[in-house]
Write a structure and sequence with these properties.
This protein has 366 residues and is of the alpha+beta class. Helices cover 68% and strands 7% of the residues. It has helices at residues 2-31, 41-88, 96-130, 132-161, 167-266, 343-349, and strands at 298-302, 321-325, 337-342, 355-359, 363-365. Helix 1 (2-31) packs across helix 4 (132-161) and helix 2 runs antiparallel to helix 3. The longest helix is centred in the middle third of the chain and has 100 residues, at 167-266. It is rod-shaped and about 125 Å long.
Length: 366
């Protein structure tokens, strides 16, 4: 039985070799113009569109995978950043538990975003591209079968034109031509039906892919924005508590100095004490020193309305009181301009977040 199998395999191999030789000879004759070649312009256009569709889909799949790799990288960076914050955050600071919870929720949000990208975009893209190798192989097979059909057609024509008619050879050649034509037409018919349908399907896959990515990004950034806002609020509250604590300490020190000066006055020293160098002026006009942060230099009263012309300016009305603050970078201060916060904002919110610049000549120092 093994020998029979070897014989069958050897016979098939010999047949395949002969087919390759016949096809090669036929292609040479066609290129030399000694044999006509069956052309199908419409089908060639469909093949050109197929090749473009395959190239576009492959590029989209590659870029989608690169995008998801970037998402993974951002996830890892975000996790390390939150881990760093958790390590530095003292247990007694405001919002310690909330900060830890935000870190966990952020990690889960990244994981969910990545998994949904896989489920809703990458898998469907992989499925879409999985059908191309089989169709590409059948297109190549069609091309081979077309050469076989042309070769059988030319062989049959040459036998018919032979001066010495051999009916057996003619019948055999006609049979081979019919068989070659049937094989070619079957595969050609299937591809003629499939290629236009495949070409139209690209619209659906593009719509699905980009709608999925856009929708997932929108939801992800919305939820991430809420977590970031919560973290921002915690950081703001922590800073306000730090400033308030520092203000209480400064106020206590000021009261101690006031008591000491009072004792000196009672002991007979009538001469006023000179303020220390760089000592900030005393803040008055309705609010005690303890109520204001130590960063306030002095107060001014607005004497003329001023409408802000830029996002970093304060909008002022005559009668407003403004707490003047130092510039974080003195080089950024323009001549004739001050930095400050409206006293009304400070009294209501106890923070210095809504600050801006304003012209000094619209105000009067208190």
């Amino acid at each position: 039985m093994a020998e029979v199998g070897k014989g069958v395999n050897a016979g098939k191999l010999a047949s395949n070799v002969q087919k390759r030789i016949t096809r090669a000879q036929e292609k040479v004759l066609q290129k030399l113009g000694k044999a006509d070649e069956t052309k199908d312009t419409a089908f060639e256009e469909e093949v050109a569109k197929f090749n473009k569709q395959l190239a576009d889909g492959t590029k989209l799949q590659k870029d989608l995978k690169a995008y998801m790799t970037a998402v993974n990288t951002m996830h890892e960076c975000s996790k390390r950043l939150h881990d760093c914050l958790a390590e530095m955050y003292d247990p007694e600071w405001f919002g310690k538990e909330e900060v830890d919870s935000i870190a966990e929720d952020t990690d889960l949000l990244w994981q969910d975003f990545h998994q949904k990208l896989v489920d809703n975009a990458l898998i469907s893209m992989d499925t879409y591209l999985a059908q191309f190798p089989d169709i590409k192989a059948r297109i190549a097979k069609r091309e081979r079968k077309l050469v076989d059909f042309d070769s059988a057609r030319h062989h049959f024509a040459s036998i018919q034109k032979s001066k010495k008619k051999d009916e057996a050879k003619i019948a055999k050649a006609e049979e081979e031509l019919g068989r070659a034509q049937k094989v070619f037409e079957e595969i050609n018919y299937d591809l003629q039906e499939e290629l236009p349908t495949l070409w139209d399907s690209r619209v659906g896959i593009y719509v699905n892919t980009f709608q999925s990515v856009a929708g997932l990004e929108k939801n992800f950034h919305r939820d991430m924005g809420k977590l970031n806002q919560n973290l921002t609020d915690i950081m703001t509250k922590l800073d306000e508590q730090r400033l308030a604590k520092k203000g209480v300490t400064t106020a206590s020190t000021g009261k101690s100095e006031e008591a000491a000066n009072h004792n000196l006055s009672e002991s007979g020293s009538d001469a006023p004490k000179s303020p220390a160098k760089n000592e900030a002026p005393t803040v008055t006009n309705g609010s005690s020193d303890a109520e204001l942060p130590p960063s306030v230099i002095y107060k001014v009263k607005v004497v003329h309305d001023y409408g802000a012309t830029d996002s970093d300016e304060l909008d002022l009305k005559a009668g407003d009181i403004v707490l003047v603050l130092p510039f974080a970078n003195p080089d950024e201060q323009d001549e004739g301009w001050l930095m400050g916060v409206k006293e009304s904002h400070w009294l209501q919110n106890k923070n210095l977040l809504v600050k801006g610049v304003f012209p000094e000549n619209f105000t009067q120092k208190l």
